[in-house]
């Protein structure tokens, strides 16, 4: 692990007539009124850093849930060495920072009047809007799959009830059963996530149901941290994990929840537990607001993450087209800080400076075996690209077993650090 990665770790006049809550602040001569849709890694970070940069800003976060359950570390709940409560964060820290947290579902955005409508009929005016809706799952992207089918073949790609369902299925699986994971094509939330899931599920099976097997049917030919994961599977779980690349028939053609089978170019396979991770796209509100492109994601100015589809609107996190940056909690956290700086500069009539963008992805193979990758990014006429020789990855062959254990400790400390930065 490089020193760079360790250091990165430490480190609306008509509004009243429309029933909008509050006039746009700039029209009143105040510092500015910002509405943020979504209190996840991207939205909550933006809110926190806006208030840090200018406490006079009026910042409102709209979130449909009472608490936020993180996707990072949810694989460990599935494997049985974390609880869902460990991943659940309140919004008290945001409120203490002077941020208004409104429970509700954003259903429409009117960029002409600069207002956001909620499901209860209320509207919130803004001078600047940040949309951080995360992802929606495209169930129709896998023939035979649906929201109902997910009750038999969980996706568990949004932390919560699905996470617990997949855990219960693994607990009930007979020793000698097969766990099938169906991985989607790029792009999707958390590129190393499916393979970390395979790893920690393998650890659970090795310790509790050692006759069991894992089959990974993948739409891709390569995946994030592939060499590290596959080396770990060979050393830690010999003979247990079989990965089928897309080019070898791994792309799923259909699923049948009734018979618990998956059909692919590799053949028809029956599993005791089947985890289907479907294709994804930007969250629904981004589509309703016309912020998405033909690919289902939101194009943005790479310097500021301002939407290229609507003025005074920014998109942060998984929903944004962010070039080489992966859709991860770490990326969203970094992007939220860039957006906060860009908004503060915009309200002051200044041009923001060049963004500082990086991503850290930690994964556990077992509770005491960690691997990671770090990248630093730059903005050019090609968009957001990886800065050469500025990142790092875990060594393929560690000199001591202690290196993997240290990275497992770094994984836990990364989670404590980033969640404190976002919600504490």
Automatic annotation (TrEMBL):
Database matches in Pfam families: FCSD-flav_bind (PF09242), FCSD_central (PF21706), Pyr_redox_2 (PF07992)
PROSITE patterns, alphabetized: TAT (PS51318)
Residue ranges of every copy of the FAD/NAD(P)-binding domain listed in the record: 33-148
Keyword Flavoprotein recorded: yes
Annotated Flavocytochrome c sulphide dehydrogenase flavin-binding domain residues: 354-423
Keyword annotations of the record: FAD, Flavoprotein
GO MF terms held by the record: flavin adenine dinucleotide binding; oxidoreductase activity
Record domain Sulfide dehydrogenase [flavocytochrome c] flavoprotein chain central: where: 163-278
PANTHER family according to UniProt: FAD-DEPENDENT PYRIDINE NUCLEOTIDE-DISULPHIDE OXIDOREDUCTASE, PTHR43755
Protein name: FAD-dependent oxidoreductase
């Amino acid at each position: 692990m490089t020193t760079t990665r360790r250091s990165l770790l430490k480190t609306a006049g008509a509004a009243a007539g429309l029933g909008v809550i509050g006039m746009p602040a700039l029209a009143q001569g105040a510092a500015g009124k910002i509405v943020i849709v979504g209190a996840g890694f991207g939205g909550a970070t933006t809110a926190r850093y806006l208030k840090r940069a200018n406490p006079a800003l009026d910042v409102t976060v709209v979130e449909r849930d009472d608490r936020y359950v993180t996707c990072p570390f949810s694989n460990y709940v599935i494997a049985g060495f974390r609880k869902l409560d460990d991943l659940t964060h309140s919004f008290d820290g945001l409120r203490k920072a002077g941020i208004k947290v409104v429970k509700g579902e954003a259903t429409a955005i009117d960029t002409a009047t600069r207002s956001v409508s909620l499901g209860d009929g209320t509207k919130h005016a803004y001078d600047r809007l940040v949309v951080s809706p995360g992802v929606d799952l495209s169930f129709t992207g896998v023939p035979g799959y649906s929201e109902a089918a997910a009750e038999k073949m969980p996706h568990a790609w949004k932390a919560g009830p699905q996470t617990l369902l997949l855990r219960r299925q693994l607990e009930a699986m007979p020793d000698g059963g097969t766990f099938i994971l169906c991985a989607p094509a790029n792009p999707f939330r958390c590129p190393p996530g499916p393979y970390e899931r395979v790893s920690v599920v393998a650890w659970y099976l090795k310790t509790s149901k050692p006759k069991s097997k894992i089959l990974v049917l993948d739409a891709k030919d390569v995946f994030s941290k592939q060499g590290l994961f596959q080396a770990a599977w060979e050393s830690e779980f010999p003979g247990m994990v079989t990965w089928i690349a897309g080019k070898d028939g791994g792309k799923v053609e259909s699923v049948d929840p009734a018979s618990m089978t998956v059909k692919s170019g590799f053949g028809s396979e029956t599993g005791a537990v089947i985890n289907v991770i479907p294709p994804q796209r930007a969250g629904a509100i981004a589509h309703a607001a016309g912020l998405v492109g033909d690919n289902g994601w939101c194009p943005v100015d790479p310097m500021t993450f301002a939407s290229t589809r609507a003025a005074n609107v920014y998109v942060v996190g998984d929903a944004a087209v962010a070039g080489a940056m992966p859709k991860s909690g770490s990326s969203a956290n970094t992007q939220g800080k860039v957006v906060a700086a860009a908004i503060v500069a915009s309200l002051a009539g200044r041009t923001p400076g060049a963004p500082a963008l990086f991503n850290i992805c930690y994964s556990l193979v077992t509770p005491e075996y960690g691997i990671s990758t770090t990248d630093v990014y730059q903005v050019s006429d090609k968009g957001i690209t990886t800065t050469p020789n500025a990142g790092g990855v875990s060594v393929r062959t560690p000199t001591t077993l202690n290196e993997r254990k240290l990275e497992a400790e770094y994984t836990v400390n990364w989670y404590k650090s980033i969640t404190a930065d976002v919600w504490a």
